[in-house]
Specification:
The complex is a heterodimer of chains A (about 120) and B (about 110).
Chain A (H helix, E strand, L loop, with lengths): L4 E3 L2 E4 L5 E6 L6 E7 L6 E7 L2 E4 L8 E4 L6 E5 L8 E8 L9 E2 L3 E5 L1
Parallel strand pairs in A: 2-11
Antiparallel strand pairs in A: 1-3, 3-8, 4-5, 4-9, 5-6, 7-8, 9-10, 9-11
Chain B lengths: L3 E2 L4 E5 L4 E7 L4 E9 L6 E7 L4 E3 L3 E6 L4 E6 L8 E9 L5 E3 L3 E6 L1
Parallel strand pairs in B: 2-11
Antiparallel strand pairs in B: 1-3, 3-8, 4-5, 4-9, 6-7, 7-8, 9-10, 9-11
Chain lengths: ~120, ~110
């Protein structure tokens, strides 16, 4: 069964360092999402791509976060510099289309701990 | 702002009993709702969805009920099993966008 792949699964870093997360969506899925999930809370959308274009990055802290999907397939989310408050699970999801009722498939996430 | 919330943060049920997880939403423009299951260390997994033109939808052992009058959503799990232990999130899709707004989650604990 096709799955969304993410790496690394766990990342520990010190504040002020740079970190990067990678996501490979399900083959053929044009829409890719990055979410941040703080422990005990629901995921919050950071950025949404349609192919290689950003559709929504209104909740992305652009002073330190960046995301790209250069060829419209896999994607990278970067944080520089990391802050203590960035500790969270970073989830990637993909969907076939960007319509309102299209199922989003989630990857296993990257657990980030900032010391 | 608009929000999706849950009434109970933790629900404990005995194996074999039925479980009901509730969710309140506040955006009357939302027309699509989804329930997700998240096991420890994993990403959310789609369970069942419902559009606003329906008030009930059934899946395998799960039923979602939508009451638009009081803006309430519930997930019913029949014959709850240990494998159902997880955190359950409701999410709403706001209008003609595909942006999902998630609630804070309810932890379901199943004991023998």
């Amino acid at each position: 069964e096709a799955e969304v792949a993410q790496s690394p699964r766990y990342k520990i870093t010190e504040k002020s360092q740079a970190v990067a997360f990678w996501c490979d969506p399900i083959s053929g899925h044009a829409t890719l999402y990055w979410y941040r999930q703080i422990l005990g809370q629901g995921p919050e959308l950071l950025v949404q791509f349609q192919d290689e274009s950003v559709v929504d990055d209104s909740q992305l802290p652009k002073d330190r976060f960046s995301a790209e999907r250069l060829k419209g397939v896999d994607s990278t989310l970067k944080i520089q510099p990391a802050e203590l408050g960035d500790s969270a699970m970073y989830l990637c999801a993909s969907s076939f289309e960007s319509t309102g009722d299209n199922e989003q498939f989630f990857g296993p996430g990257t657990r980030l701990t900032v010391l | 702002g608009e929000s999706v919330g849950l009434h109970l943060p933790t629900l404990s049920v005995q194996e074999g009993d039925n479980s009901i997880i509730n969710c309140a939403y506040s955006n009357s423009a939302s027309d699509y709702f989804i329930w997700y299951k998240q096991e420890s260390g994993k990403g959310p997994q789609f369970i069942i969805d419902i559009r606003s033109n329906m008030d009930k939808r059934q899946g395998q052992r799960v039923t979602v009920l939508l009451n638009k009058t009081v803006k309430h959503l519930s997930l019913q799990i029949a014959a709850t099993q240990p494998g159902d232990s997880a955190v359950y999130f409701c999410a709403e899709n706001m209008g003609n966008t595909d942006k999902l707004i998630f609630g804070t989650g309810t932890r379901l604990q199943v004991f023998p």
